[in-house]
Amino acid sequence: MMDFLLNDAVALLRGMVAVPSESFQEEEVATLLFHSLKGWGLAPARYGNNIVCKCRNYCASKPSLVLDAHIDTVAPSSGYTGDPFDSGDDPSVIFGLGSNDDGGSVVSLAAAFRALDSRNLPINLILALSSEEEKSGPSGASALYGDTGPEETRNASWVIVGEPTGMDAAVGERGLLVLDGTAQGKSGHAARSEGVNALYIALDDIQKLRDFRFDRISPVMGQTALNVTQINAGSAHNVIPGECRFTVDVRFTEQYEPGEILEMLSGLCRSSLVPRNLRNRASATRTDSPLLKTVEELGIRTFCSPTSSNWMRTGRDAIKMGPGESFRSHRADEYILVSEIGEAIDKYITFIETFCNVNTLEQRNGLH
After folding, report:
1. Which CA distances in Å does 126 have to 102, 151, 256, 316, 331?
2. What is the pLDDT of residues 77-86, one digit of tens each?
3. Which of 72, 95, 255, 362 has the fewest CB atoms within 10 Å distance of its CB?
4. Do residues 75 and 332 make contact, with C-beta atoms less than 8 angstroms apart?
5. Which string of b and e fits 115-133 if b means at least 16 CB within 10 Å?
6. Euclidean distance between CA atoms 190 and 197, whole angstroms
């Protein structure tokens, strides 16, 4: 890796940390990134607070690989021991909000893109830096990869989603479906056993949910998991509760769609089940994917991620891989090591070069 790539990446990340960029407030950091990429001799285009940069030799007839990372952060935790917008003076580490999630991936992917931008690759390389990821906003990745998004992302075949994974490759992400259940009964006096006890209705439904088994097993993630995590009913010891509310947490695999699960579980219960949203889909790398074959060729460790990302919004064959560690995200005193960024730049470049070779070989053999 050329030293200037790492030096510029570190300087850019320190600049990003200094700019507050919570979801839906990314304008300033998007402007910083746009001008930085332009200053590096790249050709970024801005779509709202998203930035898309296509390679110098872009050709619409070639398949495209997108390097995707998000530029927004969560709100700073109250537990910070210092300023969450100060990256510190230590040359070996970058502190601050968004340094690990997801600034490390942003600058590492941008550096790898910069290194390969002028190469005549057999694929198009696209850099996509998106907004609103932390709050699943409609104008971030959902817009970039949707039917009205820019050609470069809309027509892409593959995506590397940059998130802190220690540069291991996530080949699956569980979906999340949260259901608010409400059992309706009729209040009455407990001494006279009046009314219809909503708590009993809810308990019957909860037992049905406990006994239910999802029959489709994912080859990557295994079984879908369902748990009832909250319940609330009753106003006094002598009043039959007329309403009982409970919460169902479903962590599902790529074998199911959230709407399908909602329909199945609603058919079991007398209680109403209302989803908080139906957008958090599960994702899995295709078993015949050239991304997966590249991972195998390079000996990269694979795992299934318990956390969600832009992957579910891309609708593309993808893996999730980036510098830093997931346990540092959304916590006080977030940080990333400079050495992790340097390692990520090298590994991204090697991965993309190997991916190009794997994909070219598959095309020659008629496998892709």
Report:
1. 18, 11, 30, 14, 31
2. 889 999 999 9
3. 362
4. no
5. bbbeeebebbbbbbbbbbb
6. 10
